[in-house]
Amino acid sequence: MTCYDRRDLGLLLLRLGTGGVLAAHGTQKLFGWFGGGGIEGTGQFMESIGYTPGRTSATVAGLAEAGGGTLLALGLATPAAGAAAAGAMAGASAVHAPNGFFNQEGGFEYAASLGLTAAGLAVAGPGRLSLDHALGHTVNRNWMIPAAFAVMAAATVVTVGTRNRRLRRAKEGEQEALFEE
Length: 181
Description:
This protein is 70% helix and 0% strand. It is an all-alpha fold. Helix 1 packs antiparallel against helix 3 and helix 2 (38-48) crosses helix 3 (54-74).
């Protein structure tokens, strides 16, 4: 008989809470649920903040959030799920960074908190109250943690870096007024 301890319960609560929030955000992007814009509206928004093509960016972000969040909540493929969610939140943090830290000012606090929690769960593991544990950790091996984070870090650096270069070029093309009217 297996006795679950408070660590297992704590990890379950973190997974359900964080995964649920991420999944809800992803379904806003993908399906327009919970007041979201769906692929079309989110794609237009993504274009406006420099993530192009917008529709593709919306789909990738939505899948990383909805898929990563759902897998985190279930405790399945935890390294990949946590890395995917953390990568999506790194991209969101980049958008909010110019507004400072605190969410009330439009800052990156919320996105960073979700991303760090997802990353922490990927590293700590899902606990015994998870599908990973029930399946013998076939998709939750120790080597998968650095592999998942390496792939996601590379994808995030390329995506955010490309966005930042695009925004810089657009800003360089703008000319300030020489005289006040």
